[in-house]
């Protein structure tokens, strides 16, 4: 399950998990080493902060106009899906990261859904 990477010191195949010690040369795998996860992790981190903020602004601006608000709601749902931790499962190394990102996602979406619910029921 855990992807293999090549040890940066000796090219021996080792697990990408942080703290793995290469049995061949003793190199210890650090946080973002060797695989493409670093880029993905950065992208996801930015997404999970920017998207709720963007959705919030978009909903706020379109709130007075029901048809624009409907479009904004559709865009919001798509964005919420794009930024879902479900799509980025493989970048979480630790349970803490998983809980951290799920909490952010659930909290911001709970707020946004409540906001939309109130706006549509006004
Ligand atoms: Zn090695």
Q: What characteristics describe this protein?
A:
122 residues; mainly alpha; 2 domains; two-stranded antiparallel ribbon; 3 helices; 2 strands; 5% strand; rod-shaped; binds zinc ion
Describe this structure in words.
Keywords: Membrane, Transmembrane, Transmembrane helix. With 122 residues, the protein is mainly alpha-helical. It has two domains: 1-35, no CATH class; 36-120, no CATH class. Helix content is 57%, strand content 5%. The protein contains three helices and two strands; from the N terminus they run ββααα. A two-stranded antiparallel ribbon has the order 1-2. α1 packs antiparallel against α2 (66-82) and α1 runs parallel beside α3 (95-120). It is rod-shaped. 11% of the residues are buried. Bound molecules: zinc ion. Zinc ion binds at residues 7, 9-10, 12, 22, 24-25, 27.
